[in-house]
Write a structure and sequence with these properties.
heterodimer, A: mainly beta, 7-stranded mixed sheet, B: 6-stranded mixed sheet, 51% strand
Chain lengths: 116, 117
C-alpha cells in the first residue's frame, strides 16, 4: 500500500543535542510538509517542500531545518533541541493543485520527540 | 488566512448514542473541507472530505458531515458511536484559490471524543 512512513516512532534526545527525524513516502507526491503538534493542540505547520522548493513558515524557529534529497525522502533537523521542542512531529504529503486536484494531505504516524 | 472553530474541546458520550462534533469556518471564498481523526500516538487519518456537489458527505467508520454554506459550517455526525471511536477529531479547511498551486490546510483546535460504556 502507498503510504507515508516516519522513523523513528519515538525519539529521545538530550537538551541541546542535535536530532534528525525522517519521513519517506511511496505516494510520489510532490509536496511534503512537516508539522509540530503539542499535547491537545492542532498541528502547526513548520515548513513544506514543493518539489525542491523549500518554504518556511514565518514563525518557525531557526533551530528547525529541513532537507529533501529526493522526491521520496524528507528530513527534519533540530539543531539544538530545547525542552519546549518536545512534541509529536508529523510528516504529510499531497499532490499540487494542478488540473483541478484538491490538496488532501496524507499523514504519517508521527515521531514522538522527548527532550531530557 | 482561514479560521476554523471547533466549539467543543471535549465531547463525552455513552456507547450507541448519537454524536455531533461542530466545526465552523470563516471564509468568503469557496473552500474544501476535511475531517481528520487522530488516535493516541498516531498520525491523522482522513475521515471524509467535501470538495463540491452533494452537501452531505459520507466517510469511513459510519461518519458523515453536512456542508452548510450559509452558516459556514461542516458538522460531523454519527448516529451510534462505539468505544473504538474515542479519539481526537480535527476539522480542516483549504480555500479553492486556483491561483495557488499549494492549498494550505487550516486546522481547528480539535475535539476529543470520549465514548463511555
Amino acid at each position: 500500500d502507498a503510504m507515508v512512513i516516519q522513523n523513528p516512532r519515538y525519539q529521545v534526545t538530550q537538551f541541546g543535542k542535535p536530532v534528525t527525524l525522517s519521513c519517506s513516502q511511496t505516494l510520489n507526491h510532490n509536496v511534503m510538509y512537516w508539522y509540530q503538534q503539542k499535547s491537545s493542540q492542532a498541528p502547526k505547520l513548520l515548513f513544506h517542500y514543493y518539489d525542491k522548493d523549500f518554504n518556511n513558515e514565518a514563525d518557525t524557529p531557526d533551530n528547525f531545518q529541513s532537507r529533501r534529497p529526493n522526491t521520496s525522502f524528507c528530513f527534519l533537523d533540530i539543531r539544538s533541541p530545547g525542552l519546549g521542542d518536545a512534541a509529536m512531529y508529523l510528516c504529510a504529503t499531497s499532490r499540487d493543485r494542478g488540473q483541478g486536484r484538491d490538496n488532501e494531505q496524507f499523514f504519517g504516524p508521527g515521531t514522538r520527540l522527548t527532550v531530557l | 488566512a482561514q479560521s476554523v472553530t471547533q466549539l467543543d474541546s471535549q465531547v463525552p458520550v455513552f456507547e450507541e448514542a448519537p454524536v455531533e462534533l461542530r466545526c465552523n469556518y470563516s471564509s468568503s471564498v469557496s473552500v474544501y473541507l476535511f475531517w481528520y481523526v487522530q488516535y493516541p500516538n498516531q498520525g491523522l487519518q482522513l475521515l471524509l472530505k467535501y470538495l463540491s456537489g452533494s452537501t452531505l458527505v459520507k466517510g469511513i467508520n459510519g461518519f458523515e458531515a453536512e456542508f452548510n454554506k450559509s452558516q459556514t459550517s461542516f458538522h460531523l455526525r454519527k448516529p451510534s458511536v462505539h468505544i473504538s471511536d474515542t479519539a481526537e477529531y480535527f476539522c480542516a479547511v483549504s480555500d479553492q484559490d486556483r491561483g495557488s498551486t499549494l492549498g494550505r490546510l487550516y486546522f481547528g483546535r480539535g475535539t476529543q471524543l470520549t465514548v463511555w460504556p
